[in-house]
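Final report, section 2: Outcomes. Of the targets proposed, Caspase family protein is the one most frequently requested by collaborating groups, and we therefore present its record in full.
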Amino acid sequence: MQRRDALAALCAWPALVKAGPRIAHALLVGVSVYPRLNGKALPGAANDVALMARTVEALGVAPEHLTRLAEDALPPTRARIVEALAALAASARPGDWLLVYFSGHGAQVPARSGREGDGLDEVFLPRDTEAWDPERREVRGALRDKDIAAALHRIRARGAHVWAIFDTCHAADMTRQAGSGRGPLWRFASPADLSIPLPLWLKQWQRGLSASPRRRTATVPGHGQFVGFYAAQEGEGAIEERLPDPAAPAETRLYGLFTHRLALAVPQWLAEPQTATFASLAAGVRQGYGDRPFPTPEFVGALERRPDLGRP
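The predicted structure is given below as tokens.
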């Protein structure tokens, strides 16, 4: 599908809802404002949530089953994100497909436990993230990968399936481009941004050089399945930049590149319900990147599944 055709197809989403895949519930988190971290605003994250709200509408999510945490809705603080994830688990039923979406800054911080093989934890930064606390040895307000994984595990333990989408960066050797907003912005907070002592961070990072790869997902009998869509590899940065506004293609707005490409791929995916798998959607997203050398999206989990198993 050509880019112009894809943008036009977004306007026809409501007509595709009845025939296409269905998602029972969705949580959309986009963090654009960081009052306690200087210079880390990400305007595109709020736009991402608005675009994803249209996307999940096409996937059959009823308005009452959609939770938005963004500046134009409920501010995405850590407490609200944790509460929303718990509510999602409480509402899950066996066979449901639930979508969880995060847009904002990612970072790597020293792991809490010395037993960690890689020395670092990946974190998502909510709105109320603060600097490194040397006494507690953590970035105050950050959501660690293990916290998010535990929340998603509780959903899957109820027999529901999880589709998690992360338009954020976890690459520690990247720094966000400063400036005017005309060029791309890295969705990454460096150790200096978070006031993490560099010697400590480097010591932990060096431990990770020989670490074995992490397992992203696991199949547990009686639990729902997991599908993960990631904006970049662990060693890459995710970006936001000015891109055509799907609601008004003549204009441009700041969006996460991955979210924008995902939104453009969905109409074609919905138009072919007989062959719609997560793998086919992933292929459409990859195609949308064209000849761009990076970032490189990553897709894991039960990609062969058809997402039309959710309840109507």
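The first helix runs from residue 3 to 10.
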